């Protein structure tokens, strides 16, 4: 099977790139498993760009591009095919450019929005962060102070940035090692060297940094953290019990959720940023198009698609709109888990400059070509 690897292009000279641009051949046989979760730029042969960042999302959804002519993807007879909203094929990609045994571009003839042309998908990476990008040559990889043996891993993982005032010790309430279904990874942000007792499983030290950059550094290519089915990335000011977390992971798996979060209790001392996340009685899971950056729960395949978006994030503003977009806004694989209510103990904006965060969001959305749409219940 021909692989997909945008990083292969980094080894080519400009002259080699120009030469390759002129080399098209019949597309090799492809399969849906290999294509799922890959990132592309869509343009036509004349250089007109239609989408700077398109995701071939799981289950045939098309992420970050929402157009009636580009509604669904699948593989037929080894070719990538795009269907419109009526289920009619609009593009069949029959030609390819191959570099170092990797497909880096696909082409097919179609009529989109009344324009007949040859349309080209070019393999891309997540764009650099608009405010504070890491140089492309710089490796980012966390070092674990402590980690469990591979045979002792549980099915689920909680990753939290913590210091001495973190509430994460309360998350063990009501559980013991036999009944807990999740492992814990603590990324310590205090300046002092953390004691090994702050986490029973994984521990790393990344002092004086905000939430997302050190979390990205934990998920390098062969990180042991990729060996979990479900991964929760909460803030450290959330109050909940161990049984709450067991149930959250269980319902996420039971309902096949790629992106979810626990609901927020409607009680004194719980700071609710968006009404959509407030707990509602009477159900387990409520399918919704929004999950807050404060406590996202990912399936492994969803986190692989979204992880690079947090690489250089400062505030994280805007990520909770990008993630559903990357996943193709899955109507029945995203939601709020009402059966689990937690308490958010700290108000929004307590530890960063909101004006700078909003500017970061605007730059981030522009770099992805993301088109914002209002969501009822999201402020």
From TrEMBL:
<dbReference type="Pfam" id="PF05212">
    <property type="entry name" value="DUF707"/>
</dbReference>
<protein>
    <submittedName>
        <fullName>DUF707 domain-containing protein</fullName>
    </submittedName>
</protein>
<dbReference type="InterPro" id="IPR007877">
    <property type="entry name" value="DUF707"/>
</dbReference>
């Amino acid at each position: 099977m021909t692989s997909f690897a945008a990083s292969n292009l980094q080894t080519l000279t400009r002259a080699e790139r120009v030469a390759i641009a002129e080399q098209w051949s019949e597309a090799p046989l492809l399969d849906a498993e290999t294509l799922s979760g890959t990132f592309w730029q869509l343009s036509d042969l004349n250089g007109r760009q239609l989408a700077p960042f398109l995701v071939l999302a799981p289950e045939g959804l098309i992420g970050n591009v929402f157009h009636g002519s580009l509604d669904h993807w699948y593989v037929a007879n080894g070719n990538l095919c795009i269907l419109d909203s009526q289920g009619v094929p609009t593009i069949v990609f029959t030609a390819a450019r191959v570099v170092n045994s990797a497909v880096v571009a696909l082409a097919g003839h179609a009529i989109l929005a009344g324009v007949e042309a040859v349309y080209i998908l070019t393999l891309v990476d997540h764009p650099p962060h608009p405010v504070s990008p890491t140089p492309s040559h710089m490796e980012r990889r966390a070092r674990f102070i402590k980690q469990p043996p591979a045979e002792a891993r549980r099915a689920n993982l909680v990753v939290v940035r913590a210091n001495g005032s973190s509430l994460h010790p309360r998350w063990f309430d009501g559980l013991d090692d036999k009944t807990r279904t999740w492992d814990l990874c603590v990324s310590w942000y205090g300046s002092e060297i953390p004691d090994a007792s702050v986490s029973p499983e994984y521990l790393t030290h990344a002092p004086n940094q905000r939430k997302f950059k050190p979390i990205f550094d934990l998920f390098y290519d062969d990180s042991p953290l990729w060996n979990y089915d479900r991964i929760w990335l909460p803030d450290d000011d959330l109050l909940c019990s161990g049984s709450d977390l067991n149930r959250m992971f269980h319902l996420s798996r039971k309902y096949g959720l790629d992106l979810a979060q626990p609901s927020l209790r409607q009680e004194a001392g719980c700071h609710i940023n968006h009404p959509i996340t407030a707990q509602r009685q009477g159900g387990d899971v409520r399918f919704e198009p929004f999950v807050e950056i404060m406590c996202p729960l990912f399936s492994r395949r969803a986190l692989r698609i979204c992880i690079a978006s947090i690489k250089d994030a400062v505030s994280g503003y805007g990520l909770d709109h990008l993630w559903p977009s990357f996943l193709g806004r899955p109507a029945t694989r995203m939601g709020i888990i009402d059966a689990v209510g937690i308490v958010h103990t700290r108000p929004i904006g307590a530890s960063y400059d909101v004006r700078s965060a909003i500017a970061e969001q605007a730059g981030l959305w522009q770099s992805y070509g993301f088109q914002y749409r209002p969501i009822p219940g999201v402020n």
